[in-house]
Amino acid sequence: MEKRVTGVYSAVLLIGVLYAVFAVFSFHSRIDTRAGDRMVAIWDDQMEMAQEGDMYCYRITLPDENMNEKAIVYNTVHMCLEAFIGGNKVYELKPEKDGAVKTTGFCWNTIFLTQDDAGKEAEFRVTPVYSDSKPKGSFYYGTYREIEHKIFTERILQLILAGIIALAGVAMLIYALFVVKKGQDVETIMQFSLFAVMLGVWSITETQILDWIYPCSMLIVFLSHLMLMIMPVPFILFLRHMYHNGENKLWDICCYINCAVIAVRVILQVMGRYDFRETLLLTHICLLLFVAVIVIMTVHEVRMNELTRQVKVNSICVMVILISTLLELAIYRFSHRSTPLGSMGFLFYITVMGIENVRGHRKIIEQARENALYRKLAFTDELTGLSNRTAFKEDLEKRMDPDRQTGVGKILPTVVFMFDLNDLKKCNDTYGHDYGDRYIKMAADALKKIFAEEGRCYRIGGDEFCAWAPYTSQEAINEKIMLLEQDVRCLNEKGFVVTVSIAVGYAIYEENEDGGGLYSTMKRADAMMYERKQNYKKQEQMRKLQSKVLQVE
Questions:
Q1: In the chain, what are the domain boundaries?
Q2: Residue 51 and residue 49: Cα distance in Å, rounded?
């Protein structure tokens, strides 16, 4: 499900960004201004405001002072603007006629003043592009550079916080791709990091500093809307992993509805029917749905299970975000000053949950290492380092390949070898178990080397070894037996307390003959090995008898 949803919102994001880039070169707001040269005052309280239908008029008498190098800067968001000084139009902002995009975007409008403007009346006619929009912002008066410095100073902290959020998301994305690499953890951390990146990018656009650098850029307008409507999806995909009921259909429904709304909004924008701003209500409804789903799932989690550490930490962080955002809105409402409290709340969330994710991943890595160690101990023979009988049984079951037509498991061509150490009991009884262990390890090393390239070898008893290999030809079987005989000769040439000897038996899996599967093949190989071991014992007895006869003579 996650891969499908990720694919959908990634595709929509790509389409939206491509369209935004296209819009940069295709749709422009028209700005008409007179030329001018480039102590800041904010004239909000001094402005006389009147509303005439859909148009808002702001009037003020300019100071009777030196106007050279002075300017008036006014920020508009989805607004058309006409500026008059002494009854003459000196500035105009409006969308291109018959353009596919209705909005003028975000724009810092700069009206440069001259000495002739001193003492004249300045009038600003602001007309919202959308019926539900209202003008806001401040009128800045002063030199261009001082106004620029003030605007950046007012917003630099928000920009830094937004940049840190985006960089934190990028850092976690790199961590997921190059450290975690695979498994459910990488999906969880990637979704959280994508959410952080999108939140950071959206927060950067909200500072309106980019609007100062690139006024009326459709790329910034579209990017802001795309981030806002897409970032809830990766957040949902991340959040669901915290809950025991993470597979509940409500999560899926919430994601699919959000993806459908994203697709509808992008299509309507591309078709030129409705701008993103006009369909913003759909995303707001999705956010309410998302909040409702979280509340439902949290209540269900409390009723059915004990809250996990991650759910508790996430709930505390969400409360911090809500409180900081409400405080920011309250301060703005009463003092009309923007504060970085909301951004600080989100940064707190990203930092704490990012650390929590990494901490959880580290814990899972340690558990995986412990499990791997326990598995190794459970499936490995301590003396030789070879796999044991338990591993042998498990691996034989994996030699099944489902038939493409019937779906029934079919055993792959396999040859099973059985080995037994001759005279191990004699070695233990005569020279002690230390030498017996050395005998076993020497034989294990020889067998391990033979089956290193293909197949696998196991110690399944005290002096018994078993191995399997893909069956290719009789020549390949003979070659392995020949290599073993060569290694045994080398060991005997170096000298040991007893003669090193390994009885070998093998059998090739035959579907008609081995009704019990590879276990039947193993029994046939064991029968051959036992027969050869008995022949070895008879030969040893004959050799000893001949030796005694020679001694008597």
A1: 2-25+157-307, 29-137, 389-552
A2: 7
Digitized pLDDT (tens) for each residue of the chain, 553 residues in all: 566 777 766 776 677 677 766 765 665 555 656 544 335 667 767 778 888 888 999 999 998 888 888 899 998 888 999 999 999 999 998 887 666 778 888 889 999 998 889 999 999 999 998 888 888 768 899 888 898 898 898 888 889 988 998 998 898 888 878 877 665 567 788 888 888 898 899 889 888 888 888 877 788 888 888 888 888 888 888 888 888 777 888 888 888 888 889 889 888 888 888 888 888 888 888 888 888 888 888 888 778 766 777 778 877 877 887 787 777 767 766 665 666 777 777 778 888 877 777 776 666 666 656 666 666 667 888 888 888 888 888 887 777 655 545 445 678 888 999 999 988 888 888 888 888 899 999 999 999 888 888 888 999 888 899 998 888 889 989 999 999 999 999 988 888 888 888 999 999 988 888 877 888 888 999 999 998 888 888 887 787 777 666 555 5
**What is the amino acid identity at position 493?**
E
Q: Which of 508, 499, 505 is nearest to 530 (CA)?
A: 505
- Candidates 28, 173, 164; CA nearest to 102 is 28
Pairing label, strands 456-459, 414-421: unpaired
Neighbours of 393 (CB within 10 A): 13
State the number of CA atoms in the 13 A half-sphere of 368 facing the CB: 9
Cα distance from N-terminal residue to C-terminal residue, the chain: 88
Query: For the domain with range 389-552, which CATH number is right: 3.90.170.10, 3.40.50.1100, 3.30.420.40, 3.30.70.270?
Result: 3.30.70.270
> 39, exposed or middle or buried, with CB in 10 Å at 0-12, 13-18, 19+?
exposed
Does this chain's domain 29-137 share its CATH topology with 389-552? no
Distance CA 439, CA 419 (A): 14
Q: What gap in Å lies between CA 342 and CA 121, rounded to an integer?
A: 39
Q: Residue type for 238, please? A: F
User: Distance between CA 102 and CA 288 in Å, rounded?
Assistant: 27
**Class of domain 29-137 as given by CATH:** mainly beta
DSSP characters over 60-104 = EEPPSS--TTEEEEEEEESEEEEEEETTEEEEEEEEPTT-S----
Supply the DSSP string of 118-174, one letter for each residue.
Answer: TT-EEEEEEEESSTT------EEEEEHHHHHHHHHHHHHHHHHHHHHHHHHHHHHHH
